[in-house]
Amino acid sequence: MSDRRAHRADEASDYDPNEDFSADYGHTRTGAGSRRRSAQEGTSAAGGRRRSRGSRRKSSGPARAAKAARAGTDRASAFSASAIKRVSVLKDRPNQIVYTLAEQNRRKRGTAVLTTLFGAFGVALLILLGLLVYQLFSGSGGALVDGEDAVAAPPEGHSTLTPQQFRAEPNSEDTFGPIAERPEGAEPMTEDAVFGGVEDVEVNGMALQLDEGRVTDSCTSLVWGEGVGQSLIDANCSSAATGVYTDSEDRYVAQVTLFDLVDTESAQRVAEALDPGNAESGAGFVLPDTGDAPGLEEGYSQASTQVMGHYLAVYWVAQTDGSAPGDDTDMATLSVAAMNTVLLPYEEVVAAGREE
Length: 356
Prior knowledge:
By secondary structure, the protein is an alpha+beta fold. The protein has helices spanning 2-13, 32-58, 63-138, 173-176, 191-195, 226-234, 264-274, 330-339, 344-355, and strands spanning 165-169, 200-203, 206-216, 223-224, 239-247, 252-260, 285-286, 302-308, 311-319. It is built from nine helices and nine strands. A seven-stranded mixed sheet has the order 1-8-9-6-5-3-2. A two-stranded antiparallel sheet has the order 4-7.
């Protein structure tokens, strides 16, 4: 029996009160409170050992009783220290969980903020990209009401022929005063409005037939030269019509072009830009649209412009072979016949007079 009690006493004495059980529960204590508790427990243990040695010196009588008593005390102390450590660990665990959850919540909030910022940045980038694309394709120069807003590049290898003889006819206020300005919201010209009723014209025995007529809202595609193209943009050209006429014997060719501009002043400035003798506007003129006929591609030609309210008409005539005219008056007759193909401005003057 004494051996059993001694064995139990030895097991109790193997317990170290300073041992840290925190790692067994996923928690490590490094604070001052832990150090103070460890120091207090060490002091208590040391005091117990001193008292034990003192008791042995003072009395050796009832040794077994004292030894049993000390064994019981050590077991109680070991149990108390173990319980205190376990309770302390469990009490700290909820705090650790709270801190962990709080940290995770902060990370989630940070992720949400970053996602929002990246989304806003993406929207701003798309808006900026849209603005850049709009500016890239909107062109520079005057904005048009109903037409193009950039000078169209002429085709490669285009003719740069300009007429040897050029005449500019200014606007007649008495005739075209009622159509000095293009009505707001006016529709672009149509082929029927421009060429209807003038497919065939005849003057002094010279008859012309319309070979081809077309209308476009890209006014600058009918001209070459930066100055001429820019003048059409500044004049808010909404549409342009061009038609090619030839006689029955294919000796003569006439190209008639009509521009629909914003007002009389703008039409006058375009006429000045088309003048081959105007050094300020630079080189440029109407592009020939005669196809296989070389008359307006090379050689001799004559041209004239006429301001008709907010319209500008360009008449360009030549012999189909590009040769210079003789002593006859055929070229003069050809020019008059070409002028007779433009009726739309007169019709609008009549319509405006009826409205008044």
